[in-house]
Amino acid sequence: MIGSLDLILRLVIWFLLTANLSVANIIIGICVALLLPHGKTALGALKDWLRVLWEIIVAIPQAYLEAFELIFRPHMQENITMERAKPRRSPGLVFLDIFLITFTPKTIVVKYHEEGWYEVHRVQRSRKR
């Protein structure tokens, strides 16, 4: 049986995609969440889940600030960096990490490397020389 946090994550994604909270859609969402394949990885510690969820909540105002900054002071410099993923992450936590990085307008995860690295595309203000 999949962990309850993974089930909740799958249901939240289902409801965000369908934008429908009818009884039929809830039943379909539960069936889809249970039928999706899952690995034999250990469930991430509750502390890790809570930390990532808190970081997402904190990222919401940051995303608005970055959006206004991009509107009023355009960023012209781009670069791709490699960021180390935290060790021993379940697939659900990896998804939330990628979501957190991609949520803000200045960054997007281009690729996740199985060795534990995120390839992140960033836009920045060009430095005056």
Question: Please, could you describe this protein's structure?
Answer:
This protein is an alpha+beta fold and 129 residues long. The protein has two domains: 1-38, no CATH class; 41-129, Ribosomal Protein S8, Chain: A, domain 1 (2-Layer Sandwich). 53% of the residues lie in helices and 18% in strands. The protein is built from four helices and three strands; from the N terminus they run αααβαββ. The protein has a three-stranded antiparallel β-sheet, covered by helices on one side. A hairpin with a 3-residue loop joins strand 2 and strand 3. Helix 1 packs across helix 2 and helix 3 (46-72) runs parallel beside helix 4 (91-103). The chain is globular and about 55 Å long.
- Helix content class: 40-55%
How many whole angstroms does the radius of gyration measure?
17 Å
Low-confidence stretches: none
- The SS-based structural class is alpha+beta
User: Shape from CA axes?
Assistant: globular
- Distance between the amino and carboxyl termini: 58 Å
Strand order of the largest sheet: 1-3-2
Portion in strands: 15-25%
State the CATH architecture of the largest domain: 2-Layer Sandwich
CATH topology of the largest domain: Ribosomal Protein S8, Chain: A, domain 1
Please tally the β strands and state the result. 3
Architecture blueprint of SSEs:
Layout: H1 4-18, H2 23-35, H3 46-72, E1 77-84, H4 91-103, E2 107-113, E3 117-124
Antiparallel strand pairs: 1-3, 2-3
Helix pairs in contact: 1-2, 3-4
